[in-house]
Specification:
The chain is α+β, with helices and mostly antiparallel strands. It contains 25 helices and 20 strands. The strands form four sheets. Strands 10, 11, 12, 13, 14, 15, 16, 19 and 20 form a nine-stranded mixed sheet that branches. Strands 1, 2, 3, 6, 7, 8 and 9 form a seven-stranded mixed sheet that branches. Strands 4-5 form a two-stranded antiparallel sheet. The structure holds adenosine-5'-diphosphate and magnesium ion.
């Protein structure tokens, strides 16, 4: 392989700051920068110039088309390509791209989910340029990251509310920072580094599995003799084929300015992880969408398929996405970094409290922000954080908070009286030893790691809720403290506030084993935390009064948008499971039952070919297998009929809430029963007759 010049390669397909500075005049550049950095409305004349330069750059890089690239509520990204060509009248063409085309695009919204908004509002939607996320070239197309809204301004995508939530936290964090005299801070930003897990399997085997093709996960399959029990895959040597793939993946991501940094094998066989360096949340969200797309594309080139599903294989760890999140100022201060002076420490503690309170008050929103049919298989399955949301702080911080709560000296390395703003806090070092992987929401030194996200989720949903909830705590603190700002009452008011928050929200703090049965009991029965096990349980809470009030107060969603989103997410859940159910029926009726039947016939013929009864009776293997398989086929038939009936019954449900409850209570259990019988039959049937590649083959095929 030729040697890569990474600095030259990096961002080469992005119309980023470097290109802008080189190609735009000083005035235009500064005006655009102001739009990007301070959210100032873009001047139309400026847009015209930017569009022209962007087009020239794109054509130099081989682009022929442009598209407004957006994230509708389907979960994947959407693009509608237009070519640059404009007829000149003499049979020729010109390459055109106007400021108007850059800023705004028309799009027929009617085929994207709108969850009822379509009925109330116009079917047409429009896409609007998000200048804070740079345009890039992919497949000869200039992609312009955009927001997607209905004509009446209702968001139909994930980017719009994400940007709104970033503004919400900016507004409230600034109020709080100004209380501490940080008047120089003009802007506060949230950053995210999402760690992406995925599986790689051989393309040929993938093509043979109907379930993988239709649903992205295996719906059947008994455990292979070897799974992940040896822990020999985690951080193990990367296989040559995978390492070739990773090399190309990195190159492609770097070209798009994506800061792909670490890559390693994960716990399960065939499972891997990619982590980028963190960046501003909406860019991180765009980059993660792109990363998921590019991983799949590059895998295909290497004869493999990348599975982004949260639980592609039963009995093997699923895939998640760790959302490393922090808040920092435009003056370069990470608000979750404990400071050097007493004042900085008090500020740090207040921001820490804001997060603790937010997670406690809006557990349900955080839980439902990661709820999908796929992720339901992980959360609470003793391999991923539980469905119960709690916060891990580590010994040192917990000790400090307890000292404040109980008005006692903190007995860390040295004894310190915890009088805020007067004494320096003990310096707590970054706790890099946090390997309590069982916590869904862990403080890891200078950031929080929200670990409940599913591998195929857009990170937008989780960050919308997180930003909004923290903005809400900060709003309350600012309301309370602003009246005493600059007076001698400030210190004690601050101290009382922090003490009160710690006391009231103590229940959300938990450093123990989140996988244990005892925790479920304690969390739900003693602490009163919510345990929303499925999407059907979690999603309706989006409509709870307190949630609607907070989200509208923070201007993250309108009430109509909240209702539409709830409906769309539940629809997605029902549709996903419905397709899985139908796929199971198809596989059982067309392939599994006929295959078992054929094998039974072979066995029966073997017995039949014996001449005497005594000889026949000696066919112990054949006879016992026939007995067991006959029982199993009977059970398979009964349960496939039950599943068919349950699926047919869905249409009698009167609304989406009833349908999703039926999916949870009837379809999923029927699917699991059916699977049990088929997997048992797989153990008894000759591999020669089994119609689908086994787990062993799927998981250990890529060398
Ligand atoms: P881990 O121990 O979980 O591997 P790392 O320190 O390697 O943690 O970081 C994992 C992810 O967290 C990376 O994507 C990294 O860029 C991101 N990250 C690190 N610091 C921050 C921060 N201050 N804010 C947001 N994300 C961060
Ligand atoms: Mg991590």
């Amino acid at each position: 392989m030729e040697k890569l010049n990474v600095p030259e390669l990096f961002g080469s397909m992005v119309f980023g700051d470097r290109e802008m500075r080189e190609r735009l005049s000083g005035d235009v550049y500064r005006s655009l920068r102001k739009t990007i950095d301070e959210n100032v409305r873009l001047d139309e004349k400026v847009a015209e110039v930017v569009a022209e330069e962007m087009k020239k750059w794109a054509i130099e890089k081989g682009a022929t088309h442009f598209t407004h690239w957006f994230q509708p509520l389907t979960g994947v990204t959407a693009e509608k390509h237009d070519s640059f060509i404009e007829p000149t009248g003499d049979g020729g063409v010109l390459m055109e791209f106007s400021g108007k085309e850059l800023i705004k695009g028309e799009s027929d919204a009617s085929s994207f989910p709108s969850g009822g908004l379509r009925a109330t509002f116009e079917a047409r939607g429009y896409t609007a340029w998000d200048p804070t996320s740079y345009a890039f070239i992919k497949d000869h197309t200039l992609c312009i990251p955009t927001a997607f809204c209905s004509y009446s301004g209702e968001a139909l995508d994930k980017k719009t509310p994400l940007l709104r939530s970033m503004q919400a936290i900016n507004r409230q964090a600034l109020r709080v920072l100004h209380l501490f005299g940080n008047e120089d801070v003009k802007h506060v930003n949230t950053s995210v580094g999402p760690e992406q897990e995925y599986f790689l399997i051989d393309q040929k085997l993938f093509n043979q599995r109907t379930d993988l093709i239709y649903t992205g996960r295996t719906l059947f399959g008994c455990r292979p003799p070897k799974g992940q029990e040896m822990d020999d895959h985690y951080y193990g040597v990367i296989k040559p084929r995978v390492s070739c793939f990773m090399e190309e993946l990195n190159t492609e991501l770097w070209k798009l300015g994506i800061l792909a940094k670490t890559e390693h094998n994960e716990v399960a066989p065939a499972q891997h992880e990619l982590a980028p360096i963190y960046t501003t949340t909406n860019i991180a969200a765009d980059h993660n969408q792109l990363t998921m797309e590019i991983i799949q594309k590059v895998a295909k080139k290497h004869g493999m398929v990348c599975l982004l599903h949260e639980k592609p294989f039963a009995g093997v760890n699923g895939s998640g996405k760790h959302n490393n999140w922090s808040v920092s100022t435009d003056t370069g201060v990470n608000l979750f970094s404990p400071g050097e002076t007493p004042y900085e420490n008090a500020q740090f503690l207040l921001f820490l409290c804001a997060v603790i309170q937010a997670v406690d008050d809006y557990q349900d929103l955080l839980r439902l922000s990661v709820a999908t049919a796929g992720n339901d298989h992980r959360l609470g399955a003793n391999e991923a954080p539980p469905a119960i949301i709690s916060v891990f702080l580590g010994d040192e911080l917990t000790g400090i908070l307890n000292a404040i709560k109980n008005d006692v000296p903190y007995e860390g390395v040295e004894k310190v009286q915890m009088k805020l703003g007067v004494h320096a806090l003990p310096r707590f070092f970054r706790d890099t030893t946090d390997r309590n992987r069982t916590s869904p929401f862990a403080f890891t030194g200078n950031k929080f790691e929200f670990r409940s996200l599913g591998s195929s989720n857009s990170i937008a949903c989780a960050n919308i809720m997180l930003n909004a909830a923290v903005a809400e705590s900060l709003r309350q603190y600012a309301d309370e403290l602003e009246p005493v700002k600059g007076t001698d009452k400030f210190q004690s008011a601050l101290h009382d506030l922090i003490k009160r928050v710690i006391t009231e929200h103590q229940r959300i703090l938990f450093d123990g084993d989140g996988y244990g049965e005892e925790w479920v009991k304690e969390a739900t029965e003693v602490r009163g935390l919510s345990n929303l096990k499925t999407t059907a349980d979690a999603m309706p809470h989006l409509l709870d009064r307190k949630n609607v009030e907070m989200l509208t107060r923070q201007k993250v969603f309108s009430e109509a948008e909240i209702h539409s989103r709830c409906e769309i997410m539940l629809e997605n859940y029902c549709k996903t499971v419905n397709i899985e159910g139908l796929t199971m029926v198809d596989m059982v009726r067309k392939d599994y039952l006929p295959a078992i039947e054929e094998y039974l016939y072979t066995l029966a013929r073997a017995v039949d070919s014996m001449k005497s009864v005594s000889e026949k009776l000696k066919c112990r293997y054949e006879i016992s297998t026939i007995e067991k398989l006959t029982d199993l086929t009977d059970n398979i038939l009964t349960s496939v009929e039950a599943l068919e009936e349950a699926l047919a019954g869905l249409k009698n449900c009167k609304d989406i809430f009833e349908t999703s409850a039926a999916v949870r209570d009837k379809i999923l259990p029927s699917m699991s029963t059916l699977r049990g019988y088929v997997d048992a039959a797989e153990m008894l049937t000759s591999a020669k007759y089994w119609p689908y590649p086994s787990y062993g083959k799927l998981l250990f095929s890529v060398q």
